[in-house]
Amino acid sequence: MTVLEVENLKKIYRPRFGGNQVQALSKVTFSVEEGEYVAIMGPSGSGKSTLLHILGALDRYDEGDYFLDGQDMNQCSDKELAKIRNDSIGLVMQDFALLGDKTVIFNVMLPMFFDHTPFKDMKRLAEIALQETGISNLKNKKVNQLSGGQKQRVSIARAIVKRPMLILADEPTGALDSKTGIEIMDMLSNLNKEGITIIVVTHDRDIASFCHRQITLADGKVISDITDDE
Ligand code: ADP
Ligand code: MG
User: What is the 3-state secondary structure (H, E, C) of 11-78?
Assistant: First the structure.
């Protein structure tokens, strides 16, 4: 099954007041099948985050097509995009994007606050996600008392709590030391083996080598797309 498909995607940033516009993506075309583990690589400024934000329905594009699970994202209203984001996509960011003064379990339950899940079920599902990421013992701690690696585990628990079809991670190891970064990539590998499709943005070759496929961007264009031999 095809999870997502982009075709001739183009994104231009237009400054609000003067200055030059930036073409951040141009003619980007690829598709991702269910169960893939993909790295999006490229130097700083090559368009990786822009692409990930579009894939995550956080931003719109200027030209081309994006189909997620067969759905034409250009035809979706902002409200529909918000629902897709909440139900189908788990996001993991370099800076964790957690609520620091809230507890671990509160942060993991957060995606379910918007869809009327009974509290008991929210708690049960969050506890399962915390078990899977190996941090059940931290559930009542405030996030700002945790190490970077623990915080990234919380954000992965939050990303998987609703069993999304796709996890998108933007430089998930960028704020971590290399040993902790490897632990996080191992954890994503295990989630991928359980069937979750994962796309990781990184500029780090060692991190990308955990993935089965490497798509490389330069100046907003795909310059290579290589799948490992089995
Ligand atoms: P990467 O994540 O690979 O470092 P980005 O997607 O962040 O690359 O940026 C791609 C290009 O778009 C860069 O030239 C960057 O300066 C520009 N850019 C990114 N975000 C914005 C923005 N919000 N407004 C204007 N230009 C932007
Ligand atoms: Mg970036």
Answer: EEECCCCCCCCEEEEEEEEEEEECCCEEEEECCCCCCHHHHHHHHCCCCCCCEEEEEECCEEHHHCCH
